[in-house]
């Protein structure tokens, strides 16, 4: 039976979408949590849906800032004495191509989606080694498949997938497992934040019925379920794995 009893999990980007669903599920499965976001009201909303029997610490701040990364780790150790699980989920999505990507936009995407993941994982690694813990990175179908007009985002996720596999090899003999989930289109706030109007978002979701083999978009808890499996002892022989949670989109080829 899947459970996360005795786990202490750090989850970034828990104020919305996949991170929020993951925090709620993890707490229901028995994990204590340290959760991060910039929107305090939204983080409180996440906490209000969590299991009241688990302890939850919220950290408000930007995952790109090294003092916030350090705070996540020190608060976790001070309150719980250990870190068993790191879910690197926070990310930004931008619509831009080689013709119009601004370097500031490139930096924001790479620093949020990739550099902060390396920095936070580095800070957590000694503590994860002590607990033979796990890291789960939230990547994307854009890490393994190529799309137009998602250039820095796709680059960040492709690099994240290589990060997952390399770090899995580096930490394997220390008993730490490192895996990735790569979602297809999941209904969250990420597309609206990238500038989609309601009308454009509706059209996009409609088109997703044809771009995902299962004929629909996914929901945040469908990704959270796979993250929970990877965080649990049920996946004890799985590391360096990139798992698509994408309704079969990665297997599709235009014809
Ligand atoms: N939804 C999809 O279709 C889809 C598809 C493939 C992959 N993904 C991946 O899934 C993950 C979660 O995305 P989502 O769809 O759930 O998006 P979302 O609803 O926009 O949530 C993003 C989360 O990341 C946090 N975040 C972003 N930048 C941050 C920063 N600088 N500092 C701290 N927190 C930050 C946000 O927190 P605040 O708002 O509080 O700042 C929010 O909690 C991402 O890694 C994304 O790339 C999503």
From TrEMBL:
Q: Which UniProt keywords apply?
A: Oxidoreductase
Query: Is Lyase included in the keywords of this UniProt record?
Result: no
The answer to whether the entry has keyword Oxidoreductase is yes
Single Gene Ontology MF annotation: oxidoreductase activity
Q: Which InterPro entries match?
A: NAD(P)-bd_dom_sf (IPR036291), Sc_DH/Rdtase_CS (IPR020904), SDR_fam (IPR002347)
Highest taxon listed in the record's lineage: Eukaryota
One Pfam match, given by its short name, reads adh_short_C2
Concerning PANTHER family, the annotation shows: EG:BACR7A4.14 PROTEIN-RELATED, ZGC:101858
**Protein name per its UniProtKB record:** Uncharacterized protein
Species this chain originates from: Brachionus calyciflorus
């Amino acid at each position: 039976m899947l459970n996360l009893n005795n786990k202490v999990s750090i989850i970034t980007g828990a104020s919305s979408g996949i991170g929020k669903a993951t925090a709620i599920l993890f707490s229901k499965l028995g994990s204590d949590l340290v959760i991060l976001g910039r929107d305090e009201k939204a983080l409180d909303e996440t906490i209000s849906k969590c299991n009241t029997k688990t302890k939850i610490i919220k950290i408000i701040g930007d995952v790109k800032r090294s003092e916030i990364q350090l705070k996540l780790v020190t608060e976790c150790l001070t309150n719980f004495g250990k870190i068993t699980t790191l879910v690197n989920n926070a990310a930004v999505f931008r619509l831009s191509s080689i013709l119009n990507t601004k370097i500031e936009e490139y930096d924001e995407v790479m620093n949020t989606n990739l550099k902060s993941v390396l920095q936070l994982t580095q800070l957590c690694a000694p503590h994860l080694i002590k607990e033979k813990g796990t890291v789960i990175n939230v990547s994307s179908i854009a890490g393994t498949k190529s799309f137009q007009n998602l250039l820095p985002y796709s680059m960040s996720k492709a690099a994240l997938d290589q990060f997952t596999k390399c770090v899995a090899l580096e930490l394997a003999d220390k008993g730490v497992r490192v895996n990735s989930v790569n979602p297809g289109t999941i209904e969250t706030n990420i597309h609206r934040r990238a500038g989609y109007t309601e009308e454009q978002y509706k059209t996009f979701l409609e088109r997703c019925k044809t771009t995902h083999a299962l004929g629909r978009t996914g929901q945040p808890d469908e990704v959270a379920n796979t993250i929970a499996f990877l965080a649990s002892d049920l996946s004890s022989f799985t590391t360096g794995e990139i798992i698509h949670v994408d309704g079969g989109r990665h297997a599709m080829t235009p014809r």
